[in-house]
Structures are given as structure tokens and as C-alpha cells.
Amino acid sequence: TAYSHILTETRGKVGLITLNRPKALNALCNDLFTEVNDALRKYDNDSNIGAVVITGSQKAFAAGADIKEMKDNSFIETYKTDFLGHWAEMTSIKKPILAAVNGYALGGGCELAMMCDIIYAGEKAVFGQPEIKLGVIPGAGGTQRLVKAVGKSKAMEMVLTGSVNLNAQEALAAGLVSKIVPIEELVDETVKTAELIANMGQPSVAMGKELINKSFEIPLSAGLRWERILFQSLFGTADQKEGMNAFVEKRKANFTNQ
Ligand code: HXC
């Protein structure tokens, strides 16, 4: 598929999506997000792919939703069309999505990163929710996912001032990202982790992802029950037999996603 605002390539079992609107610092216009969702859906349906990486440029992962595109919107049209509601489609993707964040991840850019399953940060990454300075608030998880990632006080500071950003070190300390990588190596390093995941059995990876995401939404007892049932269900897969036999036979497991 030819896309206008993103680049896609496959590296081994990993699908790599690069946001590519450099002149606008990857501002997330409506069409760009539609393309991201389309690429994600295709990778999700491609049995040769096991995980996806989303990245931007070295200067900007994404500087937010496109301010120029939305500045004249009215309430009634944004409400009737559920403006930016389609962003959430990516949360229904089964395969793991890793974000490789270099440079600015502001507003919707930070929210896009937080909709991913794992975030790696380049050394100069900046995370922030500056929407309040535009007279609005975050609209794709900045008041919800950010709290879970960095706690209430820091999230309040970020969202209510719009000026308190997290650098890579602060994001790591807060738990928003799981690793800091030198700028040049960020994409390769993220693809490496994605490849590691892609070589595991896809049913167990998808269940692990789903359960961890569920933990944000359902009570502990229900989450634990779901976890045990899905764990038990994996004994019906060839991958479980292969994984455990490989351990006993002291060899590397070769999963077939069955
Ligand atoms: C549209 C944007 C943009 C954005 C940058 N640009 N961010 N265009 N929407 N969010 C454009 C600029 O207008 C400019 O184009 C070009 O990109 C380069 O940006 P500069 O500002 O010249 O670069 P620099 O001085 O290096 O500053 C970088 C920056 C700044 C600090 C990231 O661009 C900035 O503050 N951007 C806005 C960040 C923001 O407020 N994000 C939240 C958006 S609201 P021209 O053509 O003028 O040269 C949001 C709501 C989410 O995300 C809701 C989700 C549902």
C-alpha cells in the first residue's frame, strides 16, 4: 500500500511503522492516524509478523494532534463525528506494539506512545501534555493512561501546567518507559525486542498482552480468574508442548503459533 504520511517496512518478523511528516514534526493529522490504523490492522492479520514497532524521526516522535487541522472545529461537528475517536482503534490490535520515541512526544504524540505496549526512549526524548496551553485538555488518554504510568501528582502537574515535561531519565524513573537507548540505536534496539517477542508463540503473547491491558480495567479477582483460565487454555496448544519439551530436551523452542 502506498501511504502519504507513514513509511512501512518489515524486518524479519517485525513490522516497522515510521511516522513521516517531518515538516510538521509528525503532527497527527486525521489521515496520518487512519494510515497508522490501516498498517497496524494489516500487520495484525499477517501471520508472518509477530510484533510491530512505531517510531518517528530523531527530532519528533509526534508533536501532537494537528493543531492547524482542528483549530476551527466546532463542538457539534467534533461531537457528531466523534473527532479522533478512531485513534482508539489501535487498542484492539492483538499483536504487541512497541514505541521507539526519539525527540518530542507531546500531546497526542505522548498519548499515541501510551497506547503502545512497550515504550523505549531515545536519550533526548521529551514527553508532555501541553494541551492546556491551547485551551483544551488531552483527548486520547493523557488524563487516564498517564496517571497509571506516572502517578497522580506528576500527571496533574503535566496536564494542568502543560509546561512540565518528562525527559528520558524522568520518564524511566516514573515507569513511563522501560529503557533509554542512544538516539542512533533506538530503532534497532526496539526492533530487537520486538523480534524476541515475535519468536515466542503468538497465542501466548496475545493473551499476555490482553491480560496486562485488562489489569487496568477490571478488578483484581476477575483479572486473576481470566489469567488462570487463559493460562490453562494454553495447555491445548502445540506451542506449550514444544516449549516445555524443548526445555526438558535442553534445546531452543521452535514455536509454530498453533
Ligand atoms: C500542527 C505542528 C504541530 C502540531 C509542530 N507543528 N507541532 N503543526 N500541529 N501539533 C509544525 C509547526 O507549526 C511548524 O510548521 C513545524 O511543525 C515545526 O515546528 P516549530 O514549532 O517551528 O519547531 P520548534 O521551534 O523546534 O518547536 C517544536 C515544538 C513545537 C516544541 C514541538 O512545535 C510545539 O510546541 N508544537 C506543538 C505541541 C503541542 O501543543 N501539541 C499538542 C497538540 S494538541 P510551520 O509550517 O509553522 O513552520 C493535541 C491534542 C490531542 O495533541 C488530542 C488527542 C485526541
TrEMBL record:
GO terms for molecular function: enoyl-CoA hydratase activity. Its EC number is 4.2.1.17. Gene3D superfamilies: 2-enoyl-CoA Hydratase, Chain A, domain 1, Lyase 2-enoyl-coa Hydratase, Chain A, domain 2. Belongs to the enoyl-CoA hydratase/isomerase family. GO terms for biological process: fatty acid beta-oxidation. This is Probable enoyl-CoA hydratase, mitochondrial. Pfam families: ECH_1. Keywords: Fatty acid metabolism, Lipid metabolism, Lyase. InterPro entries: ClpP/crotonase-like_dom_sf, Enoyl-CoA_hyd/isom_CS, Enoyl-CoA_hydra/iso, Enoyl-CoA_hydra_C. GO terms for cellular component: mitochondrion. It is an enzyme of class 4 (lyase). It comes from Hesseltinella vesiculosa. The lineage of its organism: Eukaryota, Fungi, Fungi incertae sedis, Mucoromycota, Mucoromycotina.
